[in-house]
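Re: zinc ion structure - here you go.
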Amino acid sequence: MSDSVVWGYAGAIGPSCWGGLRSEFSLCDCGKEQSPIDLAQPERLPLSPIEFDYRQVRAGVGDVIDTGTTLQLNCASGGGIRIDGIRYDLVQLHFHHGSEHLIDGRRLAMELHLVHRSKEGDICVIGVLLEEGAHNHAFDPIWRHLRKGKESDGIGVDESPATVDPASLLPVRRSTWRYRGSLTTPPCKEGVRWLVMTEPSSLSSAQIAAYGAVYPDSHRPVQPLGERILACDA
Ligand SMILES: [Zn+2]
């Protein structure tokens, strides 16, 4: 694990301590519009469509990153999405073991975050809940880059480029929960537009176990919805 990791998911650097670890992490404690949340009792509303314009990502060695808390794929050439006339470019995608968002209090096996940024610097994250089911080949090119264990110093990591189609990681049905929230990791910056797919994608128990062996329980607890509106078009 690199020295730059100053926060984690357990003990004295766990989520309940993030706000006190560094002054720039204070929103993790005092923010009023934080993520993740429990996706419960949404307002059923007609929502503007998401136009997907994803491109295949050919990620070189430096684009697949073990941050110490997640496996991240940088997606400089991955295209993007358009919503309400705003274009958001796909910047990176990464994972959490144990879903961060809950469905009516229920935690799913994992969660994928596709992080996008507009020209103005606004962040939009698409969350895809991942549940145990059939083996999902779309994730194989990413999973090949998982460390073989916690302290392997990269031994066994596949260094070949990963070709990934971001669209193939999404569920078929494109209805979403939507709300305004934050990054779910320090500095917990707010003003993030969240779109969480109502239909999960599947991963096999072996795929989930392989990820969890490296990044176990890497999820932030849910935060209060407060005055915010949770909308859904399912
Ligand atoms: Zn995330």
